[in-house]
Write a structure and sequence with these properties.
This protein is α+β, with helices and mostly antiparallel strands. Among the domains are: 13-105 and 237-256 and 277-296, no CATH class; 110-169, no CATH class. It has helices spanning 24-40, 47-50, 138-144, 185-201, 209-220, 267-296; strands at 13-14, 57-64, 69-75, 98-100, 111-125, 150-159, 164-168, 229-231, 238-249. Strands 1, 2, 3, 4 and 9 form a five-stranded mixed sheet that branches. Strands 7-6-5-8 form a four-stranded antiparallel sheet, with no helix packed on it. Strand 2 (57-64) and strand 3 form a beta hairpin. The longest helix is centred in the C-terminal third of the chain and has 30 residues, at 267-296. It is extended, with a radius of gyration of 26 Å. Bound molecules: zinc ion (2 copies). One zinc ion binds at residues 112, 159, 161, 163, 232, 234-235.
Length: 297
């Protein structure tokens, strides 16, 4: 809850949460199975970064604004889960203090204002079928269907809620600096009248309040393309972390077997190891660059 006097939300607190943590051995087994699968696709040189050993993880129980209590692990230190960035359902980082928890009854998908343009990608589409799909009237389909294969540009955008979505650009060469393209003012006036008449005439045709208000704002803004706002599919499931409880290391630190004597590798051996790691990393960079080139092509 936001404090009505200050507009500030209280920070997440560390406290004992109701219920019990899962059995450590179960969590460890689950992680090891997951990590083994993950390592299959990665060269060993990257394992410490992308698929670390379980002894680096600290366990937490986290209580969210949706009332769920879930478990998470964090690597290397005991920075509270409310001070980290977690990823949303689409893999994009969420604002600090939020965790993604998907369930039914999460409320409507809201419109949010676009506050930043990030990067773009192009997608090639085949020609649309001549036959109208189920969702379109034949006459409407005749107007909107693409007769030829075509390519569209899509931009990743940041919304004012801090989440990320993707929007289609009006044309392939459109850039954010160009600003939105507006429709002809006379046509916008006609459309406004048509919409209002339609909404007034047939209550059964009424779109949800959210869509009607969005259409009204779009018309008032001159029917811009791209639209200045976008539905945020992350908002309903991005939950504020309200409390957390440290559970302990995934592999207890005191019981971790320590080697009695570890021979120090020689300088030559270390240099050789480093060269090998660098060569392997370079090879990966080249492969990755080829991937980007293919994607760009
Ligand atoms: Zn939840
Ligand atoms: Zn959002």
């Amino acid at each position: 809850m936001t404090d009505p006097a200050t507009g500030v939300r209280p920070p997440a607190v560390a406290r004992r949460l109701p219920g019990r943590a899962k059995r450590r051995t179960d969590v460890l087994r689950e992680y090891e199975k997951f990590n083994a699968d993950r390592r299959k696709g990665l060269p060993p040189v990257l394992w410490p970064f992308l698929a670390p050993d379980p002894d680096r993880y600290y366990r937490w129980r986290v209580q969210l604004a949706c009332a769920c209590i879930i478990e998470r692990v964090t690597p290397d230190d005991q920075t509270p889960p409310s001070e980290r960035r977690w990823r949303g359902g689409d893999g994009e980082p969420l604002p600090v203090g939020q965790l993604y928890c998907w369930h039914d009854g999460s409320g409507d998908v809201p419109y949010r204002t676009i506050v930043g343009w990030r990067d773009r990608r192009e997608i090639a589409f085949p020609a649309d079928p001549v036959e109208a799909p189920e969702w379109a009237e034949a006459e409407v389909w005749a107007v909107i269907r693409h007769d030829d294969p075509h390519t569209s540009a899509f931009w990743r955008v940041t919304l004012d809620c801090g989440h990320v979505e993707e929007v289609q650009a009006p044309t392939l060469d459109w850039k954010p600096d160009d600003g939105p393209r507006l429709a002809d003012t006379t046509r916008v006036r006609e459309m406004t009248e048509e919409y209002e008449r339609l909404w007034a005439s047939d209550p059964t045709l009424q779109p949800p309040e959210r869509e009607r208000e969005h259409t009204r704002r779009t018309l008032a803004a001159g029917w811009p393309r791209p639209r200045p706002e976008r539905l945020c599919h992350t908002c309903p499931h991005a939950r504020r972390i309200v409390a957390y409880q440290g559970v302990g290391w995934l592999v207890p630190r005191d019981s971790k077997p320590q080697p009695e004597y570890q021979a120090q590798p020689s300088r030559v051996a270390l240099e050789r190891q480093l060269r090998r790691a660098e060569a392997e990393a370079e090879q990966l960079r080249v492969q990755l660059a080829q991937h980007y080139e293919r994607e760009d092509a």
